[in-house]
């Protein structure tokens, strides 16, 4: 990795490479599906509530990422997907349980783009993991950011979409309060995420994103390598 060519780039140029909302067509977004790996019990909650549950950075499995955002790790939330055209066994055992017996919700690029562009509200989940009834409006109560994750090495060079970059003007500024940076060993995840940043005075424990009905009906559900089809109703 040390001899891999690094392309010189400015902070602004690298950030501009990650602008999902400038993409008008699903093909511009990605040629691959967006996969959400989860446990069987969580899949049932998703089906019952027709929503995806979103935890704070404090609950990230990458402890270094939580440390990067120590000051606000409890108040910023991320919904994460694996953007790939092939199956990844490590993803099953990392996110669906140690026995790989969970499920994966497979969103097409078209479904993902539709969900992002029509995201107007989320709702609050309390410490009892139930809906509190409070609706949070995007642009009023909560702000949203979208994009792919950048992966940094020990020198803070950046691996992004199969290319290494070296920021030549403001490396520290790029990393500061950037909710799309993880360490390079996590690059196998090919992660795309939606980040939710509540405004002052809004302090949810968790939040949930309603899945539009037309998308919910069409999502493909894949069973884990150790899961029986009858357990999740694969479709």
Number of DSSP-assigned strands: 15
The number of distinct helices, counting runs of at least 4 residues, comes to: 9
Q: Give the helix/strand class.
A: alpha+beta
What share of residues are in beta strands? 25-35%
Q: What is the radius of gyration?
A: 18 Å
**Main beta-sheet strand count, sense and barrel state:** 10 strands, antiparallel
The SSE string, one letter per element, is EHHEHEHEHEHEEEEEEHEEEHEH
Tell me the overall shape: globular
Task: State mean pLDDT (0 to 100 scale).
Answer: 88
**How helix-rich are the residues, as a percent range?**
10-25%
**Euclidean distance between termini CA atoms:** 41 Å
Low-confidence stretches: none
Describe this structure in words.
The longest helix is centred in the N-terminal third of the chain and has 10 residues. The chain is built from 9 helices and 15 strands. Strand 6 and strand 7 form a beta hairpin. It has 235 residues and is α+β, with helices and mostly antiparallel strands. Helix content is 23%, strand content 33%. 27% of the residues are buried.
Essential attributes:
235 residues; alpha+beta; ten-stranded antiparallel beta sheet; five-stranded mixed beta sheet; 9 helices; 15 strands
Quick structural summary:
This protein is of the alpha+beta class and 235 residues long.
Strands, helices and their partners?
Layout: E1 7-9, H1 11-16, H2 26-29, E2 33-38, H3 40-49, E3 51-56, H4 63-68, E4 77-84, H5 89-95, E5 103-107, H6 109-117, E6 121-125, E7 131-137, E8 142-148, E9 150-152, E10 158-160, E11 163-167, H7 171-175, E12 181-183, E13 191-198, E14 206-210, H8 213-216, E15 220-223, H9 229-232
